[in-house]
Write a structure and sequence with these properties.
127 residues; alpha/beta; four-stranded mixed sheet; Enzyme related to lactoylglutathione lyase; lyase; VOC_core; Glyas_Fos-R_dOase_dom
């Protein structure tokens, strides 16, 4: 068994697609109508057949509450691996990304946390 799809709740699908593709560098895999919204998935450019992330509308009150509570508590919704956290931190800063935690060494790993502009905190990790 392996993870093939996971979701991130977002406030605005178009804004999320723009941020995750243009700023973070993910590749759009699917973008198809699905009722009132769209089924939008992105993948890592390094593994386009790997796990897909659905940019899921948070129109459900439970989803919105879950998303808001995680954000208010400072809890990242997911984690992305990077080769060089300092380099990625500096690249994202230059693109206007707001960090809530600068790169911080924690034992064998380093982590940083940023605001995805769509209602979530995202953690990046260098192992």
């Amino acid at each position: 068994m392996k993870v093939i799809v996971t979701s991130i709740f977002v406030e605005d699908q178009d804004k999320a697609l723009q941020f995750y593709s243009e700023t973070l560098g993910f590749v759009k895999k699917h973008d198809v109508p699905s009722g009132e919204f769209r089924w939008i998935t992105i993948v890592s450019p390094e593994d386009q057949d790997g796990t897909e992330i659905v940019l899921e509308p948070n129109n459900n009150p439970i989803a919105k509450d879950y998303q808001n509570r995680l954000f208010e508590e400072g809890i990242p919704v997911t984690m992305f691996g990077v080769e060089d956290i300092q380099k990625e931190y500096e690249r994202l800063l230059q693109l206007g990304v707001k960090f809530t935690m600068k790169p911080t060494k924690m034992g064998e790993i380093s982590i940083a946390v940023f605001d995805d502009t769509c209602g979530n905190l995202i953690q990046i990790i260098q192992q």
